[in-house]
């Protein structure tokens, strides 16, 4: 099995305040489905109200992220799946539930996990 990160930035989710409760219900239903089949590892939404910080190797703390990267925001799920095709299928389910496109990325193999 391989672990996949399925994610989206906050800006991609263009739904009205009235739609948010239904989106939340639909997203939670997909995550419950992933739990039910044993694919679920972890999921969540990043708190856009809390500023990210970068901690350097010497312990120095600086507000923000890596200068060359975009800020990470939005929501994500980590699923353990048998194939890339399965990851794309779950990405599609989450995209429908969240009403926005999802990025699907594969974690590198780690023999110790």
**Main sheet attributes: strand count, strand direction, barrel closure:** 4 strands, antiparallel
Structural class: alpha+beta
CATH C-level label: Alpha Beta
Strand order of the largest sheet: 2-5-1-6
Number of helices: 2
- At CATH's second level, what is the architecture? 2-Layer Sandwich
Query: How much is the radius of gyration in Å?
Result: 16 Å
First CA to last CA: what distance?
11 Å
Model regions low in confidence, pLDDT < 50 over at least 5 residues? none
**CATH topology, which one?**
Alpha-Beta Plaits
What does this structure look like?
The strands form 2 sheets. The protein has a 4-stranded antiparallel β-sheet with strand order 2-5-1-6, covered by helices on one side. The chain contains 2 helices and 6 strands. The relative contact order is 0.33. It has a single domain (about 1-105), classed as 2-Layer Sandwich (Alpha-Beta Plaits). It has helices at about 20-35, 85-100, and strands at about 1-10, 40-45, 55, 60-65, 75-80, 105. It is of the alpha+beta class and about 110 residues long. The longest helix has 17 residues, at about 20-35.
What's a concise summary of this model?
The protein is an alpha+beta fold and 113 residues long. It has helices spanning 20-36, 84-98; strands at residues 2-8, 40-45, 53-55, 61-63, 75-81, 103-106.
Layout of strands and helices, then pairs:
Layout lengths: L1 E7 L11 H17 L3 E6 L7 E3 L5 E3 L11 E7 L2 H15 L4 E4 L7
Antiparallel strand pairs: 1-5, 1-6, 2-5, 3-4
